[in-house]
Amino acid sequence: MSKRKRTILSQTEIDAILFGSTSSEDEISSEDDDWPKLDSGNDSSVITDKAEIDTETEEDADDIDQSHQSIEIEEDGKGADKDRKISWTTAIDNSKIEVKSPNFCSGPVHNLPTGSDPSEYFKLFFTNSMCETVRVNTNKYAEYIQEKKNITHSKWKPVEFVEEIWNFLSVMLIMSIARLPKMSDYWASNPMLGNDMIKRTMTRDRFMEILRYFHLSNREEEKNPQDEGYNIMQKLDPFMKDLKLNFLKHFSPYRELSIDEALILI
């Protein structure tokens, strides 16, 4: 087995290595050594190479992160711009929030001039057509009762004009404000009890006859309690339906509303 031949460097060669001699690498390198050939004049090449390796590793990692970020942007449908940067912040700028104003007018909706009579406002909700429906249904109910009981009321006369229904309703409104012990007291001759406005509007007997047969719904369409589809509110539903439509027609709700708890279904 052959022995490695050692090369002994002179002081001049050692100084050349330490102080950056321009000697060629072949002269100072061993024939058997596999040392990397270093650039002359750079005695910190090993450290430099290590720093370059670390830098390249960091750059590779950044490239991977950027490519991963670009893929996420593409998957979100926001474009494939690799140079796009996403920034996050906890600050809120309310000026960038767009608040759209309502495009509707709130409040009463009608064409009545200022200073109109209160009865005109009342007729916006309780219309002439509704009074006509009440007139027809009242006459039908009177016929139904008389046929069912096989009796004839000699004082009863069908309501011919819608104005008579208006007069009847006017008397009812006055009675709700000025209350007396008995209904007949409103036609009393005693000035302490009798109401002159009611006396001028309708006679007592006629008022009592209309009150006996006053009906809001069509009796022919009403169902018995044992019938399928019976509704306990069927006598009021037709009238209430028209009334609700009139409220929606002549009043537009405001943006801020206060709801009473009695209106909320529990």
TrEMBL record:
This is PiggyBac transposable element-derived protein domain-containing protein. Residues 24-34, 54-64 have a biased composition (Acidic residues). Coiled coil: none annotated. Residues 20-82 are annotated as: Disordered. Residues 117-265 form the PiggyBac transposable element-derived protein domain. InterPro entries: PGBD (IPR029526). PANTHER family: PIGGYBAC TRANSPOSABLE ELEMENT-DERIVED PROTEIN 4. Pfam families: DDE_Tnp_1_7 (PF13843).
